[in-house]
Amino acid sequence: MRGPSSSSSVSDGTNRSWLAQGLLAGAAVAAAAVAYTVISRRRSARLRSHVVGIIPARFASSRFPGKPLVPILGKPMIQRTWERAKLATTLDQLVVATDNEKIAECCLGFGADVIMTSDTCRNGTERCNEALQKFKKKFDIVVNIQGDEPLIEPEIIDGVVKALQAAPDAVFSTAATSLKPEDASDPNRVKCVVDSHGYAIYFSRGLIPCNKSAKVNPRFPYLLHLGIQSYDAKFLRKYPELAPTPLQLEEDLEQLKVLENGYKMKVIKVDHEAHGVDTPEDVEKIESFMRERNLS
After folding, report:
1. Angle 101-109/77-85 helices, nearest 10 degrees?
2. CATH number of the domain that 279 lies in?
3. Which of 8, 49, 57, 169 is most buried when burial is the number of CB atoms within 10 A of its CB?
4. CA of 188: how far to CAs of 16, 87, 226, 253, 278, in Å?
5. How far apart are CA 146 and CA 151, in angstroms?
């Protein structure tokens, strides 16, 4: 039986050589892609290194007037939020932004920094933007810390900051936790859904996703949106210039204006039992929660 010809051997050798080169090239491209991702994330974190936390607080809430000043086990709610936020390690500065003298006086009384803003701000994001313009120092990330989250964990604040720093394609980051079945139909508890990469798809006051039976599926991991949000400072300056969008207006959720304009929003999933205070009835709930866990 004849062995392979010399030309065949050369051809096989050439093919193996090309294959080896192709594999090496592929590995090099893959390694370069990984290196680029790491470098991009490090660069993003470096470029977004200066962080300010802002607690927007207004007196004239339609559902709960004077909410920031309501006592929670003897302390104004805004003070409890401030004290929790001060424990975050990623914030270079923390301020309360308000349009109300009573709230400002209260905050100054317990040692908070205060920036006065106008009463024309339509939501917390616009109030954060107005406050940002009044700083002499430049910040890269602005964290909107809801004043009605008196038990917000500082780790969640740090988490949304780090998530935005690690996602150069996102301009916004926020947090979500498990939705309790009893909150499924509560329009004050905002729900959200995310994609497989942790980016927001949609937010709603209704239950999402909604199955064909229109009933809560006890096995589905529904998500409750927490109020804390962080923004790329450059995007925050653009936000007020964006016209209101149909979904934003229908749901009355400012996050939807971000998504409808094609921007990316990163969502981190966290464990967080205590939720915000939306109505007067929530005050008793959160005080009971604190007593049960000996939280002062």
Report:
1. 50
2. 3.90.550.10
3. 57
4. 64, 27, 11, 11, 7
5. 11
Distance of alpha carbon 217 from the chain centroid: 26
Contact by Cβ (8 Å): 143, 226: no
38: CB partners within 8 A, 6+ apart:
none
Residues 238, 135: contact at Cβ < 8 Å? no
Q: How confident is the model at residue 39 (pLDDT cuts 50, 70, 90)?
A: very low
Residue 25 lies in a domain: no
Domain membership of residue 35 (yes or no) is no
Taking a C-beta distance cutoff of 8 angstroms, is the pair 248, 294 a contact? Answer: no
Give me the chain's average pLDDT, please.
87
Domain that holds residue 101: 49-292
Nearest Cα residue to 90 out of 37, 30, 145, 43: 145
Strand-strand pairing, 51-57 and 141-144: parallel
Torsion of CA 174, 180, 186, 192, to 10 degrees: 30
Residue 41 belongs to some domain of the structure: no
pLDDT tens digits for range 155-185: 999 999 999 999 999 999 999 999 999 999 9
Distance from first CA to last CA of the chain, Å, rounded? 91
For residue 170, which phi and psi values (nearest 5 degrees)? -105, 150
Question: Structurally, how many domains does the chain consist of?
Answer: 1
Q: How far apart are CA 56 and CA 113, in angstroms?
A: 12
